Amino acid sequence: MSEIPTGVLRVYFRDNTYKSLQLTLETSVKDVIQRLCQRIMATGREVDPERHELLIIAPGPLGERKLQPADRPLAIQEKAGCAAYKFLFREIPKEGISNEDVEESDWPLPVAETSQVLRSGPLERLVPSGWQKCTHAGKSLLEKLLPEVSGGKHKMGCAGVLVTPAVLDPTSGQTWDKILQENPWLKTTNLVAKPDQLIKRRGKAGLIAVNKTFDEAKQWVMDRMCKEQKVEHVTGQLTHFLIEPFVPHKQEQEHYICMLSHRYHDEILFYHEGGVDVGDVDAKAEKLELATGEAMTEALVTEKLLSKLPAAKKANMASFICSLYKFYGDLHFAYLEINPLVMLDDNTVIPLDMAAKIDETANFLVAQKWGELDWPPPFGRAAYPEEALIHEMDGRTGASLKLTILNEKGRVWTMVAGGGASVVYADTVADYGMGHELANYGEYSGAPSTEETFVYAKTLLSLMMKYKHPEGKFLIIGGGIANFTDVAATFTGLIKALQEYADDIKEHNIKILIRRAGPNYLEGLRKVKAASDKLGLGIKVYGPETHITAIIPMALGLIKDLPEPDLSAPCGPPVRKMIDLKGKKPTPKGHPAAPAGTKHTLVTATPDTTCIVYGMQNRAVQGMLDFDYMCKRKQPSVEAMIFPFSGNHYVKFYWGTEEILMPVYTTTKEAVQKHPKTSVFVNFASFRSVHETTMEAMNHGNLKTVAIIAEGVPEQQTRDIIKVAEKKGVGIIGPATVGGIKPGCLRIGNTGGMLDNIVMSRLYRPGSVAYVSKSGGMSNELNNIVARNSDGVYEGVAIGGDRYPGSRFLDHFLRYQDDPKAKMLLLLGEVGGTDEYDLIEAKKKGRITKPVVAWCVGTCASCFTTEARGDMETAAAKNKAMQEAGFHVPESFDKLPDMVNQVYTQLVMDGEIVETPEGETPQVPMDYTWAKKLGMIRKPANFISSISDDRGEELTYCGMSISDVFTKDIGIGGVLSLLWFRRQLPEYCTKFIEMILMVTADHGPAVSGAHNTIVTARAGKDLVSSLCSGLLTIGPRFGGALDDAAKMFADAQSSGVAPKEWIDKMKKSNQLIMGIGHRIKSLANPDQRVEIIKGFAKKNFKSTPVLDYALAVEQITTKKRANLILNVDGCIAVSFVDMIRSCGAFSKEECDDLMAFGCLNGLFVLGRSIGFIGHYLDQLRLKQPLYRHPWDDITYIQELAGQGPE
């Protein structure tokens, strides 16, 4: 039996805490376990190591392993030599173990920092969005910018070199020799090597090589490069390694510092001791909190953080921390931890290990300072090829496409539209006990194209076919009620994938259920149902009349399948029967009044509330006006728009069927001055300018609520906005919000979706339920749930999913509590954050007394490995805490409608809500564009185009996509044949067209067209004017003879008249023969352009009867005069006629039409434009002055015509 060296044993308890026990033991592992149990049992708890499974997490290739009594000796032998052991007791009594009898302090349960689960997809919201984290990137930035931020007082040594898998490829350009050449210090310095992939506790995992030579460090890295490694709970490949100088130092020279941001302040933690065994820094460290925008001083740092540091070190350390904090803020870090931070005897400060998180949304602000940062992939399993495909496609589109494979052999697969909806579906699968069978999660949202949906669906289906399951599989195709996505368009792509995999779907016994709603959803469901019937797939389809997650228990066989809806007409508003009070006349209890002095910063909208919209969001504004009209407002809720990139003007909108003009201003100041009664500012500015525009809006006292729609607002800017807003008493909704809605009063932006959804959810009149949601996408579902299970929505707000929302749950719920018309409150929270606990505290204190139905999505997170966070932030913990506080919490999201109905019914029975009969549903005229898209109307088009189309995925030329134009390399001749002749001509024809363009490109500066172009250019006119001047000279005497020559010779050849007879006939009728004659060229001195054209035609055309006829005419005309040859115009004309007649692409009638349409002259115009533009550029290049024709080259005649001299 192996012996155990000294180590730290951590005992994990049921409440997700553990204790560190420092033990010096020289006995066997079995004895260690027994002695450890004795210490725990001394607290009065029973633990039997022989009956309980033990989990040992240790460094080395074994990693994590459950140990049964039978295999303990083998495992112990394999683990011999490890420096530290961690024993995890899987079964612990429910009452837990007292903390009083165990040494040291509590720690959060250390789970893996990252895993493949969090690389993409909706559950990435479990970690702060837009964060990147690694050591080398942070050190590189510090090395580059520390001297600048410290005014030269501090500098950092070498940040090390990052080694990637490229060293395995000799052709990659990153070889060890090159690394050594660029970093010669590697050979002269002892080194430290370690992976740089977001792995904590690398030292305890045996993943740091210390005090090594270059060759030793190189070998250490190569032994681990791209090899699988298990670190705590995660197995993955090590792909990025950091090699840096080894810094000899003493233990007492190691310190710990951490900077992190919160909503209202930055927090700095410093501990005079550092290193791998620093312990619980939250409990030990000295702390300094700086309010947003507050300056840090060395005196403040010395007073608050450095009390335990030797006096000789304080001044230098205080200066360094101030510089580090400036660096932290200037570069938009969200978290920065250095451990250990070494201060040598000469006061040099060196960060040995560093973890940094930056706010990537600030890229547009500090990209130049960041430079090119190489962010290594998080440690975890390598991405599946299918995941990589979807990730690549996501990067090329404006839509959001995410896919993460959880269990490729799982039975339950999902294809969900919407980020929030995808979490809800995963939650429901897990809540029904099938989390272990959940195969994937992800989303396709943001209006993906038909082709993108096809690829996404095809990828999912291909994964499902990898493994067959004897009990079959389930494919859940769901989503929330979309705002803009054309459901029918996306389902067209889905149908294409189903057709491709129809046989496999039946072979693998896959049951498919669909629930979808939103724009054009009815047509989408019809198409899918028709395809299902044709393919025999038995797909069940449902619309918004069915709860979003109801198809999951149906698919799993937990409930009977609901009847499918009638797809012949859209889903109308729910028909609810009024609750029968059975003769009772209950007396409402009422609610306590708001405490004295209560003020709410957010505007509670009324039918008179108006807003100003920043940005030319015509579609959103029209939607707001349609909502106003439907709600029977007397005046539109939008008074003006702001657009700084054009002058003041008006934009036309519809008010019902009438047209109105909306003023548009260039500045917020002018808009507010001219509309002083406006209280709401809807800001559609981009993330780049939203901070500036919001700050300006808050300077105007009458604007009391600002809605920030943009996503990707840097966190520092959001915190700045929050600080100013609270100081000025302005309420903020967002950032990253869809907005909010107050039925009968105001709609912010696109909240509530299209008009048919407004009608279906009865959002045109107020109900009794007020809700707040983080997810904007799920707000439509909440509208639907409330409409079907109560008398409707009183007000709904989506506060946005950013880390720091401008307003929180509590801000809105206190307003609802104080509003007597809001009778019932509804909360939809999310995993992460602690804002829900503010509501719990308000409930406990009696500040919130109205019934609250609450649910936090993200309960499925317990099935996955996620980044370490406090247990309080999990959805399960929040739901439990809210239930204990007296909130109405359903068993799962799938039961949320039942809970809403139950609470609402009780309020009616108690007399708190008095139901009234439903009024008439209002009508709003449908936009022509949307009505036409739905196929409800038709109208003849004003224009018809048959040569190009820019409406689809990519531009097409006569049906050929632009990508195929280049893939097939058809050239300019091929493009011209598509756009001029509506067909792809043979290659020799397109080559001939290109030859025509080349030989007609120019004929020197003396011809009339070039001359005009030159004169116009020298007069200072622009390119287009100069080109037009030259083109306007083209006519029968210059370049315009091609069409006439083609017609003359084609008619003559077709008539059967001999060339001599035809010439005589033309002479008798006094007609010139077009295409015959040249100023200087003759048969003896031929025009090379003619020879080239003639030679190509003879060699490549199937027949050349018209050319032959013209050459016969030439033989006759040159006998009269040598220069009466077939010129280039004539040769091109007759050869072109032969080409179109003999290539087989045109009928005789089409050939005649082409000549009549003037396409030959068009070829000359197109070709000669090249030369004209050349002459224009040439004159500018030569800087030629204004041209004035010399007077001595002009003959002046002053006598009147018909009069001689006297």
What are the salient characteristics of this protein?
alpha/beta; D-amino Acid Aminotransferase, Chain A, domain 1; 6 domains; seven-stranded mixed sheet; 39 helices; disordered N terminus
**Quick one: overall form?**
globular
Supply the CATH class of the largest domain.
Alpha Beta
Q: Could you describe the largest sheet, including whether it forms a barrel? A: 7 strands, antiparallel
Total E-strand runs: 41
Overall mean pLDDT: 84
Low-pLDDT runs of 5+ residues are 1-32, 38-132
Instruction: Find the structural class using helix and strand composition.
Output: alpha/beta
Rounded to the nearest angstrom, the distance between the terminal CA atoms is 142 Å
The total domain count is 6
CATH superfamily of the largest domain: Succinyl-CoA synthetase domains
* Architecture per CATH nomenclature, i.e. the level-2 architecture of the largest domain: 3-Layer(aba) Sandwich
Enzyme class: transferase
Subunit structure: Composed of two subunits. Homotetramer.
Subcellular location: Cytoplasm
InterPro entries: Citrate-bd, Citrate_synth-like_lrg_a-sub, Citrate_synth-like_sm_a-sub, Citrate_synth_N, Citrate_synthase, Citrate_synthase_sf, Citrt_syn/SCS-alpha_CS, CoA-bd
